Amino acid sequence: MDLNAHILIIDDVVDNIQVAMNIMKECSYNFSFSTRGSEALSLIEQSPVAFDLILLDIMMPGIDGFTVCKKLKENPKTKDIPIIFLTAKVDIDSISKGFSVGAVDYISKPFHAEELIARVQTHLQLHRAKKLLQANSISLETKIKTQHQRLLTELEENQKEIIWMLTELMEATSDETGKHIKRVAEISALLAQHHPTLSEEDVDTLFHASPMHDIGKMTVPHEILHKPGRYTEEEFIVMQSHTSNAYNLLRSSKRKLIKAAAIIAHQHHEKWNGKGYPRQLKGEEIHIYGRIVALADVFDALSHPRCYKKAWEMDEVINYIVEHSGSQFDPALVDIFTQHIDDFKEIALQA
Predict the structure, then answer these.
(1) What is the dihedral of CA 277, 283, 284, 288, to 10 degrees?
(2) What are the phi and psi torsion angles at 288 (to 5°)?
(3) DSSP secondary structure of 173-232
(4) pLDDT at 109
(5) Alpha-carbon distances of 140 from 129, 157, 164, 253, 326, rounded to whole Å
C-alpha cells in the first residue's frame, strides 16, 4: 500500500466522491476532488504535487470524462498518470472508448468496495513500478563509462524483480497461477534453447520476460475475466484488449526485458495462419518470442485445469499441438516440441 499516494476523484455528484473516499479512508491516501472536467484540468495543471491516480466519471456537464482523459494523455506532463473510469456507463462501446482514450481500467457503478480498493492498489503499484523503471533508465544514462557494466547488471536484476512483482499482482486479479507462469517461462526457455537461430541471451530473455504475457488481464473487468461460461462477442472484444493494453503500458521502455515483455504480451495470441489477434499477423510477421510463448502458453493451459475447464489428457494436448502446426503454431517450433517431448512433459507435470 502506498500511504503517500495522491488520488484525484472527478465526479459531478458530490455524494459519489464521498462514497469513494469513505471506502478508501483506511488506506490513508491523500485525496483531492473536482466536480467539473474543466475545473479538474486546471487543478491538475496548477497542483504543486503530481497525482498518482485519477478516478474519473464519464457523464459530466461541460467536458465529459472521455475528453478529460484524452487531454491528459496528450499533455506530456500528465500522460503517465493512470486513469480509472468510475462510471455507470457499462455498454461495450463506452468501455472500448474508455480504453482507447488511454484509461488503464474501467469500474462500473455501483461498485464493490473490495474491488475498488484492490484495483486502486494494483494501479498505484504499477505506476510506481513504471516510475522506477524510468528512474533507473535516467540513472543509468548519468553514470560514467567505467560503471557501465555493473549498472547494467544491477538494472537487469531490478527489471527481473519488477517483472516478478507485476506477475504476482496479475495472479491476484486473473485466472493465472504462479505455477502456470513459472511453467510457461521454463517451456519458453526450452523451446528457445533448441531453436537454431536463438542465443543464450534469447533463452534468458524469454525466461524472464514470458511471465508478463498476460499482464494486460489486469485491465479487463473482473466480471468478464472470471466469467465461467462462454464470452459474448462484445465480451470477447474486451478480453482481447488485454494484449494491446499490456503493449501500451510496456512499449515506452528502452530496457531489454521490458521491451521483450511488450512484444510477448502483444503477440502471444497471434496465429501462424494470420487468424489470431490483435493484429492478425501471419507467419514470420510474428516475432519469434511471440510464437514461442503462444505455443508454451497453450501447451500448459490445456495440460492444467482452469475455472472453465478440466485438464486435458497429455496425449490430447500433444495431438492438439501437432494438428495445429502450420495453422496456429510455427511448424519449426512444433518440430522442436515433438523432438523433445519428454522434456516438455516433465515441465508440464510439475506440481
Answers:
(1) 60
(2) -60, -35
(3) HSS--HHHHHHHHHHHHHHHHT-TT--HHHHHHHHHHGGGTTGGGGGS-HHHHT-SSPPP
(4) 87
(5) 16, 13, 21, 13, 43
Q: What is the pLDDT of residue 4?
A: 78
Q: Give the pLDDT means over successive 10-residue stretches in the chain (351 positions).
A: 79 92 88 92 88 92 93 92 89 90 90 88 86 66 52 58 65 60 92 96 93 86 80 90 91 86 96 97 97 96 80 94 97 97 91 57
Candidates 91, 83, 84, 36; CA nearest to 60 is 36
Q: Is 279 helix (H, G, I), strand (E, B) or coil?
A: coil
The tens digit of pLDDT for each residue in 161-209 reads 666 666 666 665 555 555 788 899 999 999 999 999 999 999 999 998 9
Non-local CB neighbours of 81 within 8 Å, separated by 6+ positions: 44, 50, 51, 52, 53, 54, 72, 127
Distance between CA atoms of 163 and 259, rounded to whole angstroms? 12
Q: How far apart (Å, rounded) are the C-alpha atoms in residues 177 and 170?
A: 9
The DSSP result for 328-346, as a single string, is: TB-HHHHHHHHHTHHHHHH
Q: For the sheet with 6-10, list strands across it.
A: 30-34, 6-10, 53-56, 83-87, 105-108
Pairwise CA distance, residues 282 & 287, whole Å: 10
Q: How far apart are CA 83 and CA 101, in angstroms?
A: 10
Residues comprising the chain, all counted: 351
For Cα atoms 226, 107, 91, give the angle at the middle one, nearest 5 degrees.
85
Query: Residue 311: what residue type?
Result: A
- At 178 the pLDDT is 57
The answer to whether 300 and 175 have CB atoms below 8 angstroms apart is no
C-alpha 83 chain-centroid distance = 15
SS3 13: coil
